[in-house]
């Protein structure tokens, strides 16, 4: 490679050799397919560049410039003329201020990059070539006599792609410049020494199950540190090494899509896909890199709930508390999350008003509970039909429905040892206050509701009958009087009767009994107060001297009616008379604590002379 140092004019012959090689291949191949041509270029281009690099430098110059040839060489002129003709013929668009060196080349000798030459050099040793700039003296060394530039170190294009240097020809004796400095570039020619890399891998992606073919999954990206402009060293093609036939990848965009329809998550949820990126356009000899993509199928609601069994049996004690669960049913759904949620309902049966079913949010079980009291003696079994239905329905799969299922539930009510049941929730009894001791006041009855029908024993809760005024027959529940009664002392007695099963003393029931004491006329009238009357001597006959009244502790139904009279020893006394006040009658009924009186007036029978009134 020879460059002419004249007004900063340099040129490079690498393209000439490449052009010749390509033209030669094309002419020899004739109608060779374009892809095969590219493959040959990719294979031979690095070898040709290497060949050019190690060739001896060739001195060339434009036709309108003089060029010093080796002395006594007629073949040199012929060769120069031919090369000039080739350069003039070329239409490759020459870059005159660039040189090239192949990267990663290492050999026993330094690599010749090119030669600098000036028209002022007559072939003597009076001209000295000087090189300065990037890497001058360390990476690149120039022979100051011949102008040959050598690369002294192994170069890596990925570290530094080009070097800018300045060349100058000076007089060796005086060091005076013979031409102005000329700047040129040495470009490091790329070779395919870097494999593609997936810097973001490994990848994870998701796609809904049952997706159609061609559904987008994800996109991967590989990078190649080689030169993307020169050749195909960085031209990547993607392919799948593992993961077929489920997924496909577009070779140039690296977009991964589904390749099979109706992939079912319930059959297989996760796929491990290996993606390869190969440079050199995927041709033979290219470098490659791989990454993994873990693809997970996400769930859609494509499965209905299904009961684990078609018939469930449960038993429950008749005395179970309301709201207590008596059993669970389960409708399994192969889907997950929201798609697996179901609601339960009782849709048929003879116990729709007796039982209810709710959904356990954690386990998705159907919980059957009691809504109303059970009675073994009334109904011993129930049959229900329950339904489980998906809450969230996917319209895309509605044709595959129905998304629900049913099951039968049989519930057996078991007999519980229940306490005795009285014939009435309360009892009201009446007894006259003069009733005889051991007289029967009334009777309570109770029975065992269980099928075993245990005998019942009765007793009085003595905390409610501290004076032990009553007794009860333990066998038949007859209540009798134990001590005399007095209505005027206590009109009501409230006691509690206890019924106990003889076979199980823990089964006990209680009932309140109210006893009313009825009145009898067992109390004489009494004057309301003591009276002392005074009469003036001039009192008139018929004058009221005193009004007296009486009370009675008894409580006759029609009220009190008293008869007043003077004492026997006063009956024949003509001076005084007693007379009942008409219209002063006590009401028929009145409270126990009160007593009304009938009043009578005592009148005088004396006249002014002191004689009794006739």
Contiguous runs where pLDDT drops below 50 for at least 5 residues: 1-40, 49-96, 584-599, 606-614
Helix/sheet category: mainly beta
Number of H/I helices: 3
Determine the strand fraction and express it as a percent band: 35-45%
Categorize the overall geometry.
Answer: elongated
Strand order of the largest sheet: 1-3-6-5
What is the count of β-strands? 36
Helix content: under 10%
Q: Could you tell me the radius of gyration in angstroms?
A: 65 Å
Q: What do the pLDDT scores average to?
A: 78
Q: Biggest β-sheet, characterized?
A: 4 strands, mixed
Q: In angstroms, what separates the terminal alpha carbons?
A: 186 Å
Oligomer description: single chain
Main location: membrane
GO cellular component, one term: synaptic cleft
Subcellular location: Cell membrane
Protein name: Cadherin 8
Describe this structure in words.
A 4-stranded mixed beta sheet has the order 1-3-6-5, with no helix packed on it. Strands 2-8-7-4 form a 4-stranded mixed beta sheet. The chain has a 4-stranded mixed beta sheet with strand order 9-15-14-11, with no helix packed on it. The chain has 3 helices and 36 strands. The model is unreliable at about 1-40, about 50-95, about 585-600 and about 605-614 (pLDDT under 50). The chain is mainly β and about 625 residues long. Helix content is about 10%, strand content about 35%. α1 (about 15-30) runs antiparallel to α2.
SSE diagram, text form:
Elements (H helix, E strand, L loop, with lengths): L1 E3 L9 H16 L4 H21 L19 H16 L8 E5 L8 E7 L9 E7 L6 E3 L5 E4 L10 E10 L10 E8 L13 E6 L7 E4 L17 E6 L4 E3 L5 E4 L11 E9 L9 E11 L7 E2 L3 E7 L7 E8 L9 E8 L5 E5 L5 E6 L10 E10 L13 E11 L6 E2 L4 E6 L7 E4 L2 E2 L8 E5 L9 E3 L5 E4 L10 E10 L6 E11 L7 E2 L16 E8 L24 E5 L18 E6 L10
Parallel strand pairs: 1-3, 2-8, 9-15, 17-23, 25-32
Antiparallel strand pairs: 3-6, 4-7, 5-6, 7-8, 10-13, 11-14, 12-13, 14-15, 16-18, 18-21, 19-22, 20-21, 22-23, 24-27, 26-30, 28-31, 29-30, 31-32, 33-34, 34-36, 35-36
Main location: membrane
InterPro entries: Cadherin, Cadherin-like_dom, Cadherin-like_sf, Cadherin_CS
Organism: Calidris pygmaea (Spoon-billed sandpiper)
């Amino acid at each position: 490679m020879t460059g002419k140092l004249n007004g900063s004019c340099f040129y490079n012959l690498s393209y000439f050799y490449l052009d010749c090689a390509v033209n030669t291949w094309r002419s020899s191949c004739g109608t060779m397919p374009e892809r095969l041509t590219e493959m040959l270029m990719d294979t031979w281009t690095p070898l040709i560049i290497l060949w050019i690099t190690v060739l001896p430098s060739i001195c060339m110059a434009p036709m309108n410039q003089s060029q010093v040839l080796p002395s006594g060489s007629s073949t040199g002129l012929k060769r120069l003329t031919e090369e000039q003709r080739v350069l003039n013929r070329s239409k490759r668009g020459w870059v005159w201020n660039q040189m090239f060196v192949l990267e990663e080349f290492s050999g026993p000798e330094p690599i010749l990059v090119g030669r600098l030459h000036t028209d002022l050099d007559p072939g003597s040793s009076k001209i000295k070539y000087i090189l300065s700039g990037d890497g001058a003296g360390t990476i690149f060394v120039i022979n100051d006599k011949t102008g040959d530039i050598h690369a002294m170190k192994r170069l890596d294009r990925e570290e530094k792609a080009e070097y800018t240097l300045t060349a100058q020809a000076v007089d060796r004796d005086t060091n005076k410049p013979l031409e102005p400095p000329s700047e040129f570039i040495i470009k490091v020619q790329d070779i395919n020494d870097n494999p593609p890399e997936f810097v973001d891998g490994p990848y994870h992606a998701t796609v809904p199950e049952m997706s159609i073919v061609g559904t987008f999954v994800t996109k991967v990206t590989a990078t190649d540190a080689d030169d993307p402009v020169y050749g195909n060293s960085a031209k990547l093609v993607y392919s799948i090494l593992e993961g077929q036939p489920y997924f496909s990848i577009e070779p140039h965009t690296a977009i991964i899509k589904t390749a099979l329809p109706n992939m079912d998550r319930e059959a297989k949820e996760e796929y491990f896909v290996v993606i390869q990126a190969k440079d050199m356009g995927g041709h033979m000899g290219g470098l490659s890199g791989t990454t993994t993509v873990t693809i997970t199928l996400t769930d859609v609601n494509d499965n209905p709930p299904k009961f684990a069994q078609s018939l469930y049996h449960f038993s429950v004690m008749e005395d179970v508390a309301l709201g207590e669960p008596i059993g669970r049913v389960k409708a399994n759904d192969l889907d997950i999350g929201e798609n697996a949620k179901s609601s339960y309902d009782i849709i048929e049966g003879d116990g729709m008003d007796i039982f209810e079913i709710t959904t356990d949010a954690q386990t998705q079980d159907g919980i059957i509970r009691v809504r109303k009291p059970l009675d073994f003696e009334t109904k011993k079994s129930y049959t229900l039909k329950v339904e489980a239905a998906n809450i969230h329905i996917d319209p895309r799969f509605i044709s595959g429905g129905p998304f629900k299922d049913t099951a039968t539930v049989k519930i057996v009510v078991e007999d519980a040892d229940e306490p005795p049941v009285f014939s009435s929730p309360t009892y009201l009894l009446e007894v006259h206050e003069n009733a005889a001791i051991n007289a029967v006041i009334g009777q309570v009855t109770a029975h065992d509701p269980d099928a075993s029908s245990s005998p019942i024993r009765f007793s009085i809760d003595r905390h409610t009958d501290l004076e032990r005024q009553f007794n009860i027959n333990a066998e038949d529940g007859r209540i009798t009087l134990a001590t005399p009664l007095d209505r005027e002392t206590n009109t009501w007695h409230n006691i509690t009767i206890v019924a106990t099963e003889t076979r199980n003393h823990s089964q006990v029931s209680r009932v309140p009994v109210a006893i009313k004491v009825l009145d009898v006329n067992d109390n004489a009238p009494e004057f309301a107060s003591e009276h002392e009357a005074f009469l003036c001597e001039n009192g008139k006959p018929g004058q009221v001297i005193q009004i007296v009244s009486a009370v009675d502790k008894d409580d006759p139904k029609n009220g009190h009616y008293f008869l007043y009279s003077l004492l026997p020893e006063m009956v024949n006394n003509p001076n005084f008379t007693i007379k009942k006040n008409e219209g002063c009658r006590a009401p028929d009924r009145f409270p126990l604590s009160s007593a009304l009186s009938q009043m009578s007036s005592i009148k005088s029978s004396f006249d002014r002379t002191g004689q009794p009134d006739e």
